[in-house]
Amino acid sequence: MLRINDAITLADWELVETFSRSQGPGGQNVNKVETAVELRFEAERSPHLSPAVKSRLKRLAGRRWTTEGAIVIRAEETRSQARNRELARERLAEMIRQALIAPKRRIATKPTYGSQLRRLKAKSVRGEVKSARGKVDPEE
After folding, report:
1. CA distance 73 to 10
2. CB neighbours (10 Å) of residue 77?
3. Where are the alpha helices (DSSP H) in 76-112?
């Protein structure tokens, strides 16, 4: 069970953890111990998330979202498998918490009367500058 907030808790069947050897250089321990964790969350099939949250989660996940509708998070920062499991679960929980926040609707506003006047004044000044750039009449 992974607790996201007071209302949402993910079941164990939605999370699949696989372990592998971490990449990069290491000592004698690196070839024996599988400390890297790959956490897979079946987001598309999850009954705990609404469709709006799933769509925001898909946008937040980016490349971590698979074609099957799962999120794959890989953690291999530490040398401890238990700590890497915690890190992966924390990342998933934080991503879901961000997806739960619905963006505010933008309320369209009219420009103020003063800003309209300033814009028109700037346009007329610019137009005068450009009109003054014309060819000079040789008779004058």
Report:
1. 16
2. 12
3. 81-100
Strands 2-3 vs 9-10: parallel, antiparallel or unpaired: antiparallel
Give the torsion sign (CA, 58, 63, 65, 68).
positive
* Cα gap 90→60, rounded to integer Å: 15
Helix 51-61 to helix 81-100 angle (10° resolution) is 120
Calpha distance 4→96 (Å, rounded): 7
Q: For residue 63, what pLDDT is reported?
A: 94
Predicted model pTM: 0.71
The reported pLDDT for the residue numbered 26 is 65
- Confirm if 23 and 71 have CB atoms less than 8 A apart: no
**Residues facing 52 on adjacent strands:** none
Q: Are 1 and 12 in contact (CB under 8 A)?
A: yes
More confident residue, 30 or 100: 100
The answer to whether the CB of 36 falls within 8 A of the CB of 19 is yes
User: Distance (Å, rounded) from C-alpha 113 to C-alpha 106?
Assistant: 21
